[in-house]
Amino acid sequence: MKPAKFDYYRPKDLPEALSLLESSGFDGKIIAGGQSLVPIMNMRLATPECLIDINGLQDLNFIESDDRVLKIGTMTRQNTVETSQLIKDQCGLVTEAVAHIGHLQTRNRGTIGGSIVHADPSAELPLVMMALNGTLHISSEDETRSVKAEDFFLTFLTTDMMPNEMLTEVHLPIWKGRVGSSFQEVARRHGDFALVAAACQLELDAHDRISDIRLALGGVEAIPLLISDAKELLAGERLTDAALQKVADVVAGSVEPESDLHASAAYRTQLAKVLTTRVVHQAYERAKGSAVCP
Amino acid sequence: MDKVIGKAVTRVEDMRLLTGQGKYIDDIGTPAQTFQAAILRSSSSHANLVSIDTAEAEKVPGVKAVITGEQVKKYLEPFSVGVSAPVHYYPIAVDKVRYVGEPVAVVVAKSRYIAEDAMERIKVKYEALPPVVDIEGSMEEDAPILHENVGSNIANHRTFHYGKVDQAFEEADRIIKHKYLFPKYTATPVETYGIIANYESSENQYTVHANFHGPFVIQAIMAQALKIPSNKLRIIVPKDIGGSYGIKAGTFPYMVLLSVASRIAGCPVKWIEDRQEHLSASSSGTDRVTYIEAAVKNNGKVTGLRMKMIDNVGAYIRAPEPACLYRTHANSTGAYDIPNLHIDAYAIMTNKLPTGLIRGYGGQELYFPLERIMQRVAFELNLDPADVIRENLIKKEQFPYKTASGGMYDSGDYMKGFELALETGKYEEFRKKQEKARKEGKIVGVGLACIVEPSGSNMGYITVALTPEERAKSLPKSGCSEAATVSMDPMGSVNVRISTTPSGQGHETVAAQIVSEVLSIPADKIKVVAELDTSTSAWSIASGSYSSRFASLGSSAVFYAAHKVKEKLMKIASHQMKVSESELELRDGAFYEKNDPTKKYALKRAAGSAHWNPLSLPEGMEPGIYETYYYSVKAAEPPDENDLINSSVTYGFVADLVTVEIDPDTGEVRILDYVTIHDAGKLLNPLIVDGQIFGGLAHGLGGALYEELVYDNKGQLLTGSFMDYLCPTAPEIPNVTIKHIETPSPMTPLGAKGLGEGNTMSAPVAVANAVSDALTPYQIEIDTLPLSPNRIWTLLNQAKQNKNKEVTV
């Protein structure tokens, strides 16, 4: 379990990092917290020839908000995200989800950007990006662009990014009003990747009717799955058991999970149903309980 | 001086461990010009080795040697095995590979990085053979055979008949039976195997530093394999071993492999196993199929047992296997008074990792079917499981209790322990809560388990694998010898040398406590040396750290060695004071005249005379203070012609009560409460005791809920990293209440029994019983582990569907 030989660079700033990335072609790999990359390099499942360490890019370590959009720099450690009051106030779903990532020790190293670009279909942050309709800001030496989470995740461990591109920051819309959210997962142990995870955020009108809802599931497909029918099924109504059951049935019909060592496809489908019911219900109750935004 | 034995003193080891000053194998220095090894391992579970092309690997700069089985074989004989089946086991594949992870080549290079680079350039050609991984599948007529010269996959088969089994079954009101499968799982110490091997041609000697912890009978096996006199294999065990839980007994094949690698490469060679290697190719517990039948009276009394047990020892049977089948032989009927017993025992080989010691060794495999069937007896007879246990427990007045298979349970009060478990876990109250909870649609249950925890193995038990006729052909084996040395230097300072190769259990602390009390000097003045060196330490074949033998045997050796020192010092004092020994007493570091406490003679002075002034010693006394004691127990006799064997020295008792709640929607099992009552005789250090119990329980919960080495039907390991092999971590450990009762063992001078493995044996079945109890409304039988949510939900879902079908019919 020793990595193959690689060149190591530690750029001082973003332009230098992007220039290095450009010049290393397909052989470069960015390392931030290293919580996924280092083990797979040690197992020689990944053998990048050139490692570009962006831990020196402190400009990319930030949490900001303009009251409409929450912006998080790619180098922000997961633990910093977890303990940020600003994020908790404006985007509580993120706070709730991040607590499920690994362990405190790994969250001290792991970054928000690292987890997103790794694009594990069971991981928490990609799911949250999908559930919250986040936007990813990506740079290369020549270009800066942004892409919606829905277009970012392509398949298992694969994103829309080119080898010369780097994620720099993520933007999350801040919901106003009577908003509630919920993140729940079933994992074999504390800190494991979820067998299935579910995330929901919804908004209520003054009469406890759902005015907007986003629901997404992780661990059931090659990428986080947005249940776009949820809004159609639930909007304009108060939440009832019957309505919840309907959403759960839609979820059961739309997921096509794979079987693996820890969970059969049938069990994952069951978890998708159960967790859907639970997160929608909890988000609804939280929204009802909140006077203003969460 | 106050009593020190039995006090919860903190560990002397902790300061160095917590400040990063532990001396583990990877911390000790290496000789100059030591090279690093990496081991290429088989990707195939069963194949002929057609060719190994090492040419490209040898060209990598920094590579010293690339070594294959063909080369290694020249310096080796196959390891001797404890069965009559002619299994040829080498530490590296020769001709054939038989499991995924089996060593195929060793690369010796300047660094591990280079060694791994070179490893990728070795080309191995395999000719695939059909694999066999299923236990019973391996015994079928047309099963692929792993070892052609054995002729079948059965490495060992023995039957045992004790008492009047047939009569018990004829006279039974009911016969209750079931088949259970205990899965293959392992022990996962933080520190993996590590070896520094050095062959010196000038002396034709191998010096091997390794975190191997015995049993040191394996030293003889290694020397034999290396074809050298045993004093030419010097094994040095470092002061600190980073956990083992039995698995480091399995370091030995690698010690031999690296020894030969050093010889071929012509340099000292170091190898630190990585985690992937550890999971795929170190050692593991056996997976076992048990068919168990109980002859039962209507009141729940079990009068006879029949067990067919089939242990899967993996690709090669190797020492000390098939000991997993026999280590618990004396306590096969557990905590119950069952006089009639039939055992049909098989050790079979499949294309999986070879097995060996892991904590609990054989206990969890035995008690899973035994305690499951006790619960089933209760359910089928519509009795309370607690009443069935009460009906069958050995009674206090029956001790010392002779078991059907020859065990001599030394002491105990099982009923007291069990009732304490019920009381502490509020059993009756829980039953009422359960009734209410069930009406609310909740799934809750309570599991009970009573187990006997053997410790201090009788070295004779392994020969039970042979028939009495086969045994008669060689010298009998018995005993459980352990050695300790206590010495006093000219300034009166004490050194204690132990041969119990601790791997974190705190032997140094307890040894110091014992010597402190015997010699009446403060424990912090006593230095305990835990390094073992087979060329300079006092040791014997049974030495080492396994079968919880420190508390029963290691501590006894220390106790008697300290007494030898005390007696010698007393003689000196008596001589100098001109007072008879019977009139002297030792306290506060000095001998006092009982009748005249003003007259005293300091211990230090007595020690001083032994060194500085030997001419002053009593006539005939040797100078110096250096006493070694070899301790064994009479009760550890060899098996007799009827296969009666007292396989262990002491037998502790554990009663567990666990309550669980199962999420009906997800199948997740949550442990509400875990109560465990222990009787390990006299406790030497309660603080260490509870630490050991917590660790053993965590391992047991791993077996119950999380851990399994899973192979697919092609023999590929699916749990090759900690992503998939799930050990419980701190958040998975529930609330635990530990209580003790102490019935001192008459076998050991301090009354202590071994402990620390009990809950590894009991927890898998205690949790299974709780889950089964919870699921009684669904008529679900739990007959294997681990109880993953996927497994529980699938069973629950099937049960619900069956119920629906019944309704429609």
TrEMBL record, chain A:
Keyword Oxidoreductase carried by entry:
yes
Query: Where is each FAD-binding PCMH-type domain found?
Result: 1-177
What is the protein's species of origin? Answer: Fictibacillus enclensis
Q: Which residues form the signal peptide?
A: none
Q: Which PANTHER family match?
A: XANTHINE DEHYDROGENASE SUBUNIT C-RELATED
The molecular function terms in GO held by this entry are:
FAD binding; oxidoreductase activity
Give the keywords, sorted: FAD, Flavoprotein, Oxidoreductase
Q: What is this protein called?
A: Molybdopterin dehydrogenase
Family annotation (Pfam families): CO_deh_flav_C, FAD_binding_5
Return the InterPro entries for the record: CO_DH_flav_C, CO_DH_flav_C_dom_sf, Diverse_Substr_Oxidored, FAD-bd_PCMH, FAD-bd_PCMH-like_sf, FAD-bd_PCMH_sub1, FAD-bd_PCMH_sub2, Mopterin_DH_FAD-bd
Q: Which PROSITE patterns match?
A: FAD_PCMH
From TrEMBL, chain B:
**Residue ranges annotated for the Aldehyde oxidase/xanthine dehydrogenase a/b hammerhead domain, each copy included:** 19-130
- Superkingdom of this protein's organism: Bacteria
| Keyword Transferase recorded | no
TM ranges are: none
Q: Which UniProt keywords apply?
A: Molybdenum, Oxidoreductase
**Could you confirm whether the keyword Oxidoreductase appears in this record?**
yes
Give this protein's Gene Ontology molecular function annotations: iron ion binding; oxidoreductase activity
Q: Which Pfam families match?
A: Ald_Xan_dh_C, MoCoBD_1, MoCoBD_2
Under InterPro entries, the record lists:
Ald_Oxase/Xan_DH_a/b (IPR000674), Ald_Oxase/Xan_DH_a/b_sf (IPR036856), Ald_Oxase/xanthine_DH-like (IPR016208), AldOxase/xan_DH_MoCoBD1 (IPR008274), AldOxase/xan_DH_MoCoBD2 (IPR046867), AldOxase/xan_DH_Mopterin-bd_sf (IPR037165)
Q: What is this protein called?
A: Carbon monoxide dehydrogenase
> Which organism does this record belong to?
Fictibacillus enclensis
